[in-house]
Amino acid sequence: MELFESVPLATLTTLKVGGTASYVALCRKNDDIEAALAFARERGLPWYVLGGGSNVLAPDEGFHGVIVRALFEGMVFRNVDERVEVEVGSGIVWDELVQESVERKLWGLENLAGIPGLVGAAPVQNIGAYGADVSNTIIHVDVFDTSSKKVIRFSKEQCAFSYRDSFFKHNPAFIIISVCFSLSVKDAPHIEYPDILARKGQGSTLTTSKEIAEVIREIRSKKFPDLVLVGTAGSFFKNPIISEETYAALRAAYPELPGFPQAENKTKVKVPLAWILDHILHLRGYTKGLVRLFEKQPLVLVAEHNATATEINSFADEIAAKVKEATGIQIEREVQSL
Ligand SMILES: Cc1cc2nc3c(=O)[nH]c(=O)nc-3n(C[C@H](O)[C@H](O)[C@H](O)COP(=O)(O)OP(=O)(O)OC[C@H]3O[C@@H](n4cnc5c(N)ncnc54)[C@H](O)[C@@H]3O)c2cc1C
Predict the structure, then answer these.
(1) Total number of domains constituting the chain
(2) Residue 178 beta carbon below 6 angstroms from any ligand 1 atom
(3) For 78-100, what is each residue's pLDDT tens digit?
(4) CATH number of the domain that 301 lies in?
(5) Choosing from 83, 90, 235, 311, which is the catalytic residue?
């Protein structure tokens, strides 16, 4: 285990705010995790698992504890009938896995191209984009159980995946060390999203997974702010999933409000929060001090240099209160608080 002392959390998270972490432990094998946890236990300190820090808001007062980074390596592909299974270490950069899979002409991860972060965090909030959720491709997840100090395999069913949610999000005692994905060798394009389809009309053939991944990265580069210039964690809130009745009532007031009935529960409707922020509340670009809703995608919160976690929290609370007042919907944060 490599151990660092007094590390600014702003350097470990893409929102780039927060005080200092007392310790950061880089863990590449099970023994490293055991050593990091023992180190924390001996000093009576809490610990927190961090990947690429692209979905975490770190507090201004810092973290008086041990940040455990599960940086397990490895990406092993094996042919299984007409599929390919790939076992990937938690520390592999997510988009590098996507790129390797499309270079090998495999299908399944291409719509998730360009999402920041590491493989170990992908199952935690069941990352998704452009009509794909990572859970569609996951076979199992291996975790280090910090109670028994043993490695346990979670089947896909045990992971309890749903929209931006999983078992792991509520059970931080399980540290993900590797994830196994099932990819298809047969063409399986999902290009129904209007943004992607529009590219077809503009000359892209969208016939290979590599081409789809490239197009998606290009679309994303225009939708998200530049991580080098500002702080952001992508979508700050989840899209709300509401009852049919609530949706019908809102549609009566706002006839153009889009809604997507949920496959797993047809009585529930997912509503794009960006539409509410934009068309009902007119908050596109809304700014308070150093924090704002991104002009090109109001679901994305942008923190300028020198913004604080306190400012971000009160800005996010204000947005949530405005949504509640206008629609009655209590929105939830997608971003995790450290
Ligand atoms: C510009 C931008 C665009 C984004 N676009 C999308 C998008 O399209 N779709 C989407 O779903 N998300 C998106 N995100 C959010 C983010 O990229 C994902 O949630 C990503 O999976 C987080 O990975 P990470 O390694 O940075 O995790 P972190 O932010 O470090 O951690 C996230 C959570 O997972 C936990 N965790 C991390 N690693 C492990 C582990 N090994 N074991 C157990 N728990 C762990 C952490 O404790 C924390 O609760 C975006 C973020 C940004 C900044």
Answers:
(1) 3
(2) no
(3) 999 889 999 999 999 999 999 99
(4) 3.90.78.10
(5) 235
